[in-house]
């Protein structure tokens, strides 16, 4: 289990406010007949607020389709938001007409899930790692560039002579090390890591996660980490945000979330991993299928699967409220004390992530 989050300094490196991404899609023929209209909307991200203090890791977790990768793509400027804002080091990067400015792009990099698909198979490793250095004009000469590539290869646990090889000559874990060397080549401050180890064998996963934690300590990196694997998230995170159908249902310090989960959906997720040594608590089995993001249930999106749902939950959407211990939860049952082990509402309106900085 992680220790309590280390306090950062100054303003959060990343702030996301009211972020939305709605996809318009053509309705299937049968829906057009039954409901009328040509279009339907997928609310992939539907009003998301989060902050990541410098030098810390916030992980997003949730079932497939809850919007985690869409958040990553929006933050990286790979997709335009339908609403809301993204502030990086205080600058709004969500409205840049021609994409994010080069300096911001250099400071934010991404590590993808699949180290097979994310490396160009026709390029030598040295060129793959050197490409961002060339893009941002970071080396004075080819000799400088090669020295830097060699240093990066050794930094991530590979050999300088590996630069002359092609990606197919490496294992999955080694390829992810190459992706990491490429991502840190521009000396970024912020890395978005979208399921960086889920394509790897478990033994290799641990090596890559350890490398990422060492890098964070040595380089002062801030991470947005995306995973559906709670054991991985438990190892990596200072903060955890739990997403359900495009919304955050709980954002808490990692240790607090595992020891004392508040939202019934967080409890459901944790009940799928009984071997993490967390405190025993009464279980609230949640029935039902994950609802469709095209037509989410009214009120709390989770209410059809929630044993604690009442009339208010079926009609009124809850908002994220602050509680003791830096916990934020979006749940009427928690607010009303109907949840098991209710937590105390915080008197102050200080944002929990701010409170930690
Ligand atoms: N380009 C798109 N057009 C239409 N719908 C999309 C598009 N991209 C994502 N979606 C939908 O948005 C929702 C969120 O998708 P997203 O990939 O962000 O979820 P996720 O939590 O990352 O899932 P996974 O863990 O499976 O990657 C899904 O319902 C998905 O089908």
Automatic annotation (TrEMBL):
Subcellular location, record wording: Cell inner membrane
GO CC annotation: plasma membrane
Domain ABC transporter, residue spans: 14-270
InterPro entries: AAA+_ATPase, ABC_transp_ATP-bind, ABC_transporter-like_ATP-bd, ABC_transporter-like_CS, Oligopep_ABC_C, P-loop_NTPase
Pfam families membership: ABC_tran (PF00005), oligo_HPY (PF08352)
UniProt GO MF annotations: ATP binding; ATP hydrolysis activity
Keywords from the named record: ATP-binding, Nucleotide-binding, Transport
Bilayer disposition of the protein: Peripheral membrane protein
SUPFAM superfamilies given in the database record: P-loop containing nucleoside triphosphate hydrolases
UniProt record, GO biological process: peptide transport; transmembrane transport
NCBIfam families for this protein: oligo_HPY (TIGR01727)
Family indicated by similarity: Belongs to the ABC transporter superfamily.
Protein name, entry field: Oligopeptide/dipeptide ABC transporter ATP-binding protein
Native organism: Aminobacter aganoensis
